[in-house]
Design brief:
Strand content: 15-25%
CATH topology: Undecaprenyl pyrophosphate synthetase
CATH architecture: 3-Layer(aba) Sandwich
Largest sheet: 6 strands, parallel
Radius of gyration: 19 Å
Helix content: 40-55%
CATH superfamily: Decaprenyl diphosphate synthase-like
Number of domains: 1
Bound molecules: farnesyl diphosphate
Oligomer: single chain
Number of helices: 7
Number of strands: 8
Order of helices and strands: EEEHHEHEHEHHEEH
Strand order of the largest sheet: 5-6-4-3-7-8
Distance between the termini: 32 Å
Shape: globular
Structural class: alpha/beta
Length: 249
């Protein structure tokens, strides 16, 4: 049971009533619309999104979710207006500066999914420092997909395999997975996309092959602990068959 006091009212979330997925992945969408709805610039939405990220990480720790993967910046996001890209980089750098100590104390181990080439050197350094500082933590693995694209990840893996001289006959799904940025981690069980869109948008396209997809109309800055709990309730009701027939049939 988790109890929370919101504006004087006590809410209880019954964790024994839900199945807790090991690995949750989130496409954090809707920051721009959240800001627009309030007459604010898009950057204000990204700032609110970054604040919400802290709350969702806390909720994952409370819910005993072991792996959280977030889509922070895609290889396609570079094509946004320069001003917005600059704002996103500033927010990312600030999150790394301000949150890393707390995350480390909470036992969060940060992994990076994506490539750092092409990213500002000072952000590259902050990312590397964060990985190094938190590498031995084991309460929650936080995969930050930053400058990440699923297709780029697959190409990166193929290039590495060719460079390593992997023989066609030796190639199987396990070996291929070991060349992905998520190597060593189980595939996501649940992929959540906020803001009502129902696309995968080049996110974990190999790893999410059998993930349960949960689209929600809630915009990312408003996606709180209760919204996450609703996603867990929906996940609990899903019958995961992995291409087989139901276990109840
Ligand atoms: C999508 O909203 C969100 C992003 C492109 C970036 C996600 C970024 C954050 C949550 C804040 C920064 C945190 C880190 C770790 C970088 P959108 O702009 O596509 O929203 P819209 O579809 O309503 O326009």
């Amino acid at each position: 049971m988790i109890t929370d006091l919101i504006m004087g009212t006590e809410y209880t979330l019954d964790l024994s009533a839900v199945k807790i997925p090991t690995h949750v992945a989130i496409i954090m969408d809707g920051n721009g619309r959240w800001a627009q709805a309030r007459g604010l610039p898009r950057q204000a939405g990204h700032r609110a999104g970054a604040e919400n990220l802290r709350r969702v990480i806390n909720a994952c720790v409370d819910f005993n979710i072991k792996i959280l993967t977030i889509y922070a910046f895609s290889t396609e996001n570079w094509s946004r207006p320069k001003r917005e890209v600059r704002a996103l980089m500033r927010i990312f750098a600030r999150v790394l500066n301000q949150e890393i100590g707390n995350l480390h104390q909470q036992g969060v181990c940060i992994h990076h999914l994506g490539e750092l080439t092409g990213v500002e050197p000072n952000i590259q350094k902050k990312v590397r420092d964060a990985l190094e500082l938190t590498r031995l933590n084991d309460r929650l693995i936080l995969n930050v997909a930053f400058n990440y694209g699923g297709r780029a990840e697959i190409l990166h893996a193929v290039r590495q395999m060719l460079a390593d001289g992997v023989k066609p006959d030796d190639l199987d799904e396990e070996l291929f997975s070991s060349y992905l940025f998520t190597h060593g981690l189980p595939d996501p069980d649940l992929v959540i996309r906020t803001s009502g869109e129902q696309r995968i948008s080049n996110f974990l396209i190999w790893q999410a092959a059998y993930a349960e997809f949960y689209p929600t109309p809630v915009l990312w800055p408003d996606f709180d602990k209760f919204a996450l709990y609703d996603a867990l309730v929906a996940y609990t009701d899903r019958d995961r068959r992995f291409g087989r027939v139901s276990t109840e049939d």
